[in-house]
Every structure is written in structure tokens, then in C-alpha cells.
Design brief:
361 residues; ten-stranded parallel sheet; 15 helices; 46% helix; 12% strand; binds S-adenosyl-L-homocysteine
Amino acid sequence: MSNISEILNQSSFSRSDLGQLLRCEGEDMLCLFEQGRRIKEIYTGNKVYFRGLIEFSNICVKDCFYCGIRRSNRSVQRYNLTDHEILEAARFADECKFGSIVLQSGENNSVAFADRITSLIRQIKEQSNGRLGITLSVGEQSEPVYRQWFEAGAHRYLLRIETTNQTLFHKIHPQNQLHDFNRRLDCLHALRAIGYQTGTGVMIGLPFQTMDDLAQDLLFFEQFGIDMVGMGPYLEHSKTPLYKFRNELLPIQKRFELALKMIATLRILMKDINIAAATALQAIDPMGREKGIKVGANIIMPNITPGLYRNDYLLYENKPCVDEEPAQCKGCLDARIAMADGEIGYGEWGDSLHFKARTTK
Ligand code: SAH
């Protein structure tokens, strides 16, 4: 029996075990993928849940060195959907029985922004008769603002820590108060204390990132007891400062493989959480998200941003599906999930089982 099979049979994992799983290749890698798939089926079943993703604005106060919509990128055409457009996108998700939506945007810390989100949450709940679950992904905010949105009806929040290696965190962000590792961590704690199903994640294959860093990221998810994870490959964007390190990155296929290994390893480590197959996987491989589902992910976030704006929410280049309208996505997704041996949980919220377990103790 190989060392990898031995590790796969353990019930707990050290940083070095996780590092070995992330480094495995060939037959060993296939064993890891198979184990991810098996554990997912046992613990969460083969259902895949949809979250209709509405990227409602690319206006951002931050200047992250990796991100295409960073404040300093002057070549981005900035947009902000109207309330009507957002409500119509939410109605579309409800009609498609997607179960829930994710409202995502660049970061904005104004009172007007906070109040607008509160009002949108209320309206979406009302127009769907409480059917649609609402996940927010609008960055770092104050505790009272997070609470205001929770009380209005949002029940899940995604805030990627991006990397848990603080030295690396500093290399990929400007050094100022707006980009502070501890503040981001505090936000995650606040979200959980308020009662949100809390999600985080990291980028995989960042310049200067090691396998050991990624193993540590996985341990962080476990120690924090996170409910949901969304993580995907880092993809370079030519209008960002990190682009100059493009020759030092893992080759794109290796980055893709590593992202799949991260998903499978996380599934083995945290058996009952929700794991999203990130859109960035599909930017590399046309079947990327389905491959993510096959090795352990159980969530897909179909983009339901109105077609007109999709080309302006380019966190990275070569983003898939930017020329499509939302209605085109649905038929495509049905077929894709069937190919990944999954079944779609239509009309269900598909809450994190991990969250249920920790809140009903
Ligand atoms: N303003 C929100 C949403 C940010 S965009 C927030 O701060 O949480 C969502 C995610 O896209 C980011 O958290 C980051 O992990 C990812 N992302 C940004 N640039 C990327 C790139 N170049 N490659 C891959 N993922 C990227």
C-alpha cells in the first residue's frame, strides 16, 4: 500500500499529511480524487446545489494586487446594477428554482450602500415569499452592518481569507489599514457570532505560495470550523501588479490539478461542509466546475448577472460565459451536472450540514 493510501485511511490529518496529499501525482492523485468523491457521497449525497450569482457592482475601494477590478485599474468600465435589475435577476433565480442567490460586488463601506443592501434583501425575500436563500459576498464591513443584513434576512456570508500565510497576504495586498489580515479574520469571527453560515476560501497557485501554505490554509478551515468554502486557482490579470510574476507561477494545468487536489483533500478533512466548485476552474478547463463536483464539491454558482455587465466583472481574464444571457445558463448546467453524476437540488437551500450540526448541538 502506498503512503498516500495509508494517509487516506486516517481519521485525522497533520499539516505534513495534508502537504503529501497536495503533492501527490499520477495513480496516487486518482486515489485522492476517488476518496474525495466517496466521502462526499457518504456525507452529503450526490446533490449539487445552485446559488445564482449576481455580480451587482464592480466599484471597489480596495486595491488588491491580484484583482482585475481593483480601484487603480483605470481601464475597467465601472457599473452598478439598478435595484430593478437586481430584483429581476433574483426573480429569474427563483423561477429557475435555484433555491438561493449570492449578491457579490466590489467593496463599499458607505452607509448608503449598507442601507441599499438591507432594502434589497427585504425586497428579494418579499417577492419570493421567503423562498430564496440569500448569501452575501460584499467584503469587510462593520459588525453592526453585518447584523443589520442578517436581521433583514441574509443567512450566509462569503469572505475569502485569500491566504492564511500573513507574509504572503502582505505581498499580495497594499500595506495599509484597508488591507489588513487581522481585520479580515475579525470579520469572519463577527459573521459567525452573529449567526451566519460562514464561508471563506483561498486562491490556489498564487506567486510565492507553497504547498505547505495551502496545507496550513486547510488546517485553518478545520480549526475555525468553517461552514462553507469556495476556493479556486489564481489567474493572472495583465492590468494588476502581480502580473509581473507570471513566469514564476505553476503551469496553468498544474494549478488546475492543484485546485482539484485542494477540493478533494478538504472534503476528506471536513466531510459535511459545503464546497463550491469555483468559476475560476472553468476559466481553465471547459469542464472545470464539473471536475470539481466529481472530486468533492457540492455547490455551483451559475452567473445570473445580466449579460450586458458580465464583461466588466473580470476579476481575472478569460472568464467563462461572459457572452451569455442568464437563460442560456440553465439548460447548459442541467446537462453538465448530469455528466458529473450529480443531481440538482432544485428549490432547496442546500444549507451546510456542518452549520446545522454545530447549531443544533
Ligand atoms: N469584495 C468581495 C468579493 C471579492 S471578489 C470580497 O472582498 O470578498 C471574490 C473573490 O475573487 C476574491 O475573494 C478572490 O479570492 C477572487 N479573485 C480575485 N482576483 C482573482 C484572480 N486574479 N484570480 C482568481 N481569483 C481571484
